[in-house]
Each structure stands twice: as C-alpha cells, then as structure tokens.
Design a protein that fits this description.
By secondary structure, the chain is of the alpha/beta class.
C-alpha cells in the first residue's frame, strides 16, 4: 500500500518550507540517514526561463529546502534537468535558481551525456536514452510542479521524468507517440524503466510543489497561477499524481498517466490502495480548478482514420500564433519535431504552420515565451463536443 504525505502549506518562506518537507519525508517513513554519503540527484521542473509567480517551474526555494536537507544529512545534491529548448545554463541564469545554486554550491550535471536505459517489461519503448547522471545516483529526488497540461491533462511526478530525456529529443518522442494515449503509455514505460529497470536500482522519492500551481492552458506561459497550498510526497509517482489531481478537483479519468498507471500495477492498481497521511484530500480539495482544453478523442477505441492529417485539420484544435504577441523568436520552429513550422513568409509577422504535418502535440504552445500561441477549433470540432 503506497503512502502519500499531504500537508497544507501556503508559503515559500525557507524555514517553514523546510520543516514541511521534513515532515513530509517523515510521514512516508523516509529515513534521513539514507542521505549519508549518498549522491542525490535532485530533479526540479525547469521547463524554461520563467518568473516564480507564473508557476511554470518548481519554485527555487522549494528546491533549496530539499538540497539543504540533503546536505545537512551528509549527502551530495546534484541538480539534473534538461529543459525543452533552452540550455540548462541559460534557464538557471535567467531564474532564481542562479542565486540558489551559487549560495548552496550545488553541482550541476551535464544533461546531454546520455546512456540507454532498457526495460524488458515496457509495453512498447524498451530502450530509452536518458541523462547519464541518473545512473550515477544513489537516490533520485523528483520535484514536480503540479500543473495542467494540454496532452496529459495534468503534469506531476510521472510526467516530470520526461525531463530525463535530453533537450529537443523530447519533441521527437511526440512523433513516435503521436496521440494522447500513446504518449501517456510512453511516459509510463519511462516511469517503469526508471523505477524498476535501473541496474543497480535507484530509489525515487517524489516531493511535489503544489503550493502555487498552474491551471488553464498549462504547462507554459499560457497557463494561470493559483494557490493550491499543498506539499505532497511519496515513493510512488502514480499515487502522488492521483492525490494531487483529486485535490485540484479534476476528472481523474482524464489523467491517463494515473488511470493507465493503475492498469500497469506499478506498485499500485487502484486508488483504494493509497494511504494519505497528514491532511485529508477532502479538506484541501477545491472545486473551481480550470483544466486545459484539448482533444480527448484519442482513446483505445479510436485510431485510424482519426489520426490522419485530413481528420486533424477538420476536427482537432490547431495551434495558431497571434501576430500582436509573436516576436518571431522561432522557439516554436526549433521544438517542432514534425517540421510543420517554418519562417514567416512576410505576409504576416508570424511563423508559417503546415497543418498537414502538424501532429497536434502542442509543444509550440507549451514553449512560447510570449504565450502567443493558442488553440483554435477545427472546422467541424463542434461535432466532437468542442
């Protein structure tokens, strides 16, 4: 039975936050002496350079509290993360992480050095290249920021491990797993591989920043920050994500990494097995949390012809840049694995989109620093209830 610690917390004040995280670890029975002489990978969400108040990245003080706990118990914390577009160096420099990393003298691993992780029990993706630093760790501390997401509905502990894949290599995975269901199954293959496939095994503890979170068109600049006032912890990422999704009052059946994760039986096969320690879900649950919009038609029942270019153009939301916001930085073009985005033709000051090539992964929307890209419904999207 997986334990999930749930503690109410409405501040990023360093000492209060540190006490909350210490209590969280105690609630799940984590022995701090395990940090002694251990090399501890600390993986936050550093999607892109962003201000703390936008709730796009794991708060820098949340990260600081965790690394201080590791250091005070004679461990060596190592920051490991691989942003989607920007270099890790640039994201750190442009955020409060620069100050924290310097003040705490944190080692930063090179995320571009990779090694192949194999997992025979995977459904489809048995071999995945991830950052080599994970293989050198004694413990992994996964620090997700809870957010809504246009593809996976929510992004939390399971989705954050996607950051183990270097840089723009992530966008290529959308080509290999082009719809919602396939992508969720890929994430669960990766989660299973990192949880059960490492040799020797490396324990993972998930400590979630759900204090100031993101709703609406997350997980990037288009999302909206709101306070959920919670810190969660557990050694089962699926269980942690379930509790967080329930606190937000969202539809758990749409959180594919959770419901499909139950079917995988990765240490948990149903919500009934979760033991919540600390606050109850009911006491912290909100009722007006805004989900991301997005297609939900890609289920096990729906495949061809629903994933053909013609169907997508007629029925599915398409990413469209706004001329009054676009700065032609072309980060969208850089991340597009399908080659659907090209330079402006000059007719409009926005990139050109070839929607026949577009796979509707919405990575461009997620990464746009100006929140200039929005979803517009396909011509017959109303038929699908859009």
């Amino acid at each position: 039975m997986p334990d999930v610690s749930l503690i109410q917390c409405d501040t990023y004040q360093p000492e209060a936050l540190k006490d909350t995280i210490l209590q969280s670890l105690s609630n799940i029975g984590f022995d701090l002496t395990r940090f002694n002489n251990a090399r501890v990978v600390v993986k936050p969400n550093l999607l892109m350079p962003a201000k703390e108040e936008k709730a796009i990245i794991t708060h820098a003080e949340f990260f600081r509290a965790v690394v201080r706990i590791v250091k005070e118990n004679n461990g060596t914390p190592v920051l490991v993360e691989s942003p989607a577009i920007h270099s890790l160096k640039r994201v750190i420099k442009k955020t409060d992480y620069a100050r924290v990393v310097e003040e705490e003298a944190i080692e930063i691993a090179d995320p571009m050095q990779t090694r192949t992780l194999s997992y025979d029990a995977a459904k489809k993706f048995r071999y995945i290249d991830i950052s080599e630093a994970y293989f050198d760790a004694d413990i992994i501390l996964n620090l997700p920021k809870f957010k809504t997401h246009g593809i996976t509905y929510v992004t939390g502990a399971v989705k954050l491990l996607f950051g183990a894949i270097p840089g723009v290599e992530k966008s290529k995975m959308h080509m290999r797993a082009p719809d919602h269901e396939d992508f969720a199954e890929f994430l669960l293959d990766l989660y299973g591989a990192m949880t059960f496939g490492m040799k020797p095994s490396v324990p993972i503890v998930h400590i979630m920043d759900a204090i100031c979170v993101q709703e609406g068109e997350g997980p990037g600049p288009a999302g909206k920050a709101r306070w959920l006032n919670a810190v969660l912890a557990g050694d089962n990422g699926i269980a942690v994500d379930y509790v967080a999704t329930m606190i937000a009052g969202l539809d758990i059946d749409k959180a594919l990494t959770v419901v499909n994760g139950f079917r995988r039986d990765y240490g948990i096969s149903s919500a009934k097995e979760i033991k919540v320690i600390g606050e109850s879900i009911k006491n912290l649950q909100v009722s007006d949390f805004e989900p991301a919009t997005g297609s939900t038609i890609f289920s096990n029942m729906f495949r061809w012809p629903f994933n053909t270019p013609t169907f997508k153009n007629l029925f599915l939301d398409r990413p469209v840049p706004a001329e009054d916001k676009c700065t032609l930085c072309y980060q969208c073009k850089k991340i597009c694995a399908s080659g659907a985005i090209t330079a402006s033709s000059g007719k409009k000051d926005i990139p050109n989109y070839d929607y026949k090539k577009c796979i509707r992964c919405y990575c461009c929307l997620e990464i746009c620093p100006e929140a200039a890209i929005t979803k517009q419904k396909g011509r017959f999207g109303w038929i699908l209830g859009g």
